[in-house]
Amino acid sequence: MALCTITYANHFNNEFHFDDSHTIQNNAYIRDIKNLPLFFTDGSTSSTLPQNQSYRPIVTTSLAFDYWLGGGYYLFFFHLSTFILFLLQGLLMVCFFTKLFNISLPDDKLNTRVALIAVDLYLLHPTIAETVNYVIARADLQSTLAVILAFVLYQYSARCRKFYLYLVPVIIGALAKPPSIMFAPMFFIYLLFFEEQLSLADLFKLSRFKQVFAVIKKSAPAFICCAFMYWFLGRMTPKTWEPGGTAPIQYLITQPYVIAHYFQMFFVPNALSADSDWQLLPNISDWRFAVGSFFILVMIVIAFITSAKKQLRPISFGILWFFLALLPTSSIIPLAEVLNDHRMFFPFVGLLISVSWTITLLAKKLAPLISKYIPAYKIVFSVTLCLILSTYAYATWQRNQVWHTEESLWHDVTIKSPNNGRGLMNYGLSKMAVGDYVTANIYFNKALKILPNYFSLYVNLAILKAVTGHDDTAEMYFKRAQWYGSNYPDAYIYYARYLNARGRYPEAIKNLQQAMRLSSANIYARTLLMNAYENTENWSALKQLALTTLQLVPDNADAKNYLIAANTKKGKIDTEAEKAKHSPSTGKYLALSLLYYNAGRFQQCIDACNEAIKLKPNFPQAYNNICAAYNKMQQWDKAIIAAKQGLALKPNNQLLKNNLQEAYSHQSP
Question: What is the mean pLDDT of the chain?
């Protein structure tokens, strides 16, 4: 546990990524701990994207708890709660493995030590790092933890066995993520191997019917429980949810090779990528289908053979666990991604049982022979083990660093998965966020060649074109984004933000209302709409929206301010202008200039900046805002003058450089 904590010490402030945006950052529901009962009755509270709204109340509850504990989006608490559960899973795995090994090889003092070493390998394995670093992937951890806890309760508590209390964690785990229901077939195999001492072949022997029937009878409650949870989850999942894929047969024939890849990653985790560029196989004539199918066949044969002997059954059990844990993501249901690193979190528990027990039995058998040639073989083994653990720990530390920021994560993806259009786009997005528009444009266009119909890419291209002053092109891209992503709120939200900034409030309001019809809990859409209502002085609509927003998020500062504006019928800009007038300061005038700019009142933006410059002549930020405002007014010569004045004060200011470049690009020859 100490070694694991040291290894993960650099991950506690890693940023949100991927689906964290719509399940955590923009999800208003998790911002109020009072919404906990709602999470269990309404699956739409899990995400602001209708297509991603699934019924996972345990996950959403844990996120709301982290938000409450940290008093907001304090990353440390989101990672801390996940990590504590991760360590708890490690402890339970030691208990589970030890009991399993003791049944197969009784009275062996090495069993606990083998279990400890095996769990060390799991906790430090770099493949596991994605699930620990990726906040919303805690669903995999919570469901896996639940399955292991269920086995431990069954193994160690007679009361839990008698009253079926070991099924309680399974129910809770299923409310985190559906793969927990795979406990039922895993439990059946466990009873078959370790209680009735039967093999897989015995399932087909009439002479073993009574024993097999005893296993069926004992495992029946688990199957009933898991079947009910499968039905219940399906009933509670919003109808808007989509698995993401559209080709079930192609997805199915691709998975054997994907499973073989997962197996290889257990031993040599050399191709870890947060977002792979693997594609569906075209048909079964592809050589990868043959390789994957052959691998699965060989593994099943090994599982049959090793199930025949008591000492070998952990090997068979682990193999079957591996396949059963992958079944929900590697079957006929086509998911958006062909493979994901976090999908290995649950299956690797079983694979670890198989591998660690195989090595243990081989070591026991070969020890007398090895000791003849290497007398100090125990020291050699210990040193080798320490080297492996150290290598894994170092690799995990490095993966934590990759997950630190959006830029570091997506840069790694562009290297590991160069044909992933989404990865290229997101790396471009990270560059656009820091004002590197040239690099962003390069990566957006690379992504466009791979994903010509991806709505999110058109949204980002539109934002880039708008920032660089190409409004006509920006409009075109926004329209394309809505064409390809008509059911996605972001296609309307970011276009509305663009319209708001240009004072086109009626159009912005129309787009934001559509976004809220798709996702009423999107706090960003609500904030933009309140801004548009304020700027159009639609006080009644503003008041109503502010009140409903405060019902969702009682501590939302924006909603409180907009409610005050609605009640006083005085907008934020007017209020800030009065504050600046009565108590002038450079900060107030600069903030006021940004408000004017975002409202499309560019001359007033310039006037506010000039007031700031009167107070502080050497103020490059003010010159930047003046340049940006003149660019919007298409007064390129004045924009160039302002930019040069600002750069004379701060030559390395990237925003000033970008605004100057925009002015130059439009200036007449």
Answer: 93
